[in-house]
Specification:
By secondary structure, the chain is an alpha+beta fold. Helices cover 32% and strands 34% of the residues.
Length: 176
């Protein structure tokens, strides 16, 4: 009986060894599959993350120079309103500077968010520009990028300069 018992114990040990071996192999396979899933997920996540990178932001500096001999009042009017939204006084032979930022890579030149501007020289003459641009006013309209001298400072930084001159004063209409 001891012989049979020892044979039985040997069989059980052998069976347990096979079961443990198979379980260990199963666990290794499962761990390998989990690792493969994590690696695959990491690769997919990295690809998605890299595809979501934003374009670099763009900084636009707008300089409005008063090269005339007159004080300029630069009056900005908002959309659908007769009330002015901002007034900027620019002394003769001086300038106004503004920086704007864009995440989509577009140039944001001053004046932003308005539909018209009135330029008053001293208190006696004026020019009026509207946001609508056609070929007759493209070269001098502050809303037209063509009216500015463009300088590339870096890949992400541009300067646009608009200059008022004594010629603008001559072309301005008297204020009545």
């Amino acid at each position: 009986m001891i012989g049979r018992l020892s044979d039985y114990v040997l069989k059980v040990n052998k069976s347990l060894g096979v079961i443990i071996s198979k379980s260990t192999n199963f666990l290794k396979m499962r761990a390998d599959m989990e690792l493969k899933k994590h690696v695959l997920f990491s690769i997919v996540f990295a690809v998605v993350l890299l595809s979501c990178i934003k374009e670099p932001s763009l900084t636009t500096q707008t300089v409005v120079r008063n090269e005339s001999s007159y004080l300029i009042r630069y009056i900005i009017y908002g959309y659908n309103t007769t009330d002015y939204t901002d007034t900027i006084n620019i002394l003769a032979d001086s300038q106004y500077l503004e920086e704007n930022f864009s995440d989509d890579g577009s140039f944001m030149i001053f004046p932003i968010g308005s539909d018209s501007v009135k330029i008053i020289f001293n208190t006696d003459k004026q020019l009026v520009y509207v946001h609508y641009i056609d070929d007759t006013n493209r070269d001098r309209n502050p809303y037209s990028i063509d009216a500015y001298n463009k300088e590339k400072m870096t890949d992400e930084y541009y300067r646009f300069t608009y200059s008022f001159t004594n010629e603008d004063y001559k072309n301005a209409l008297p204020i009545e």
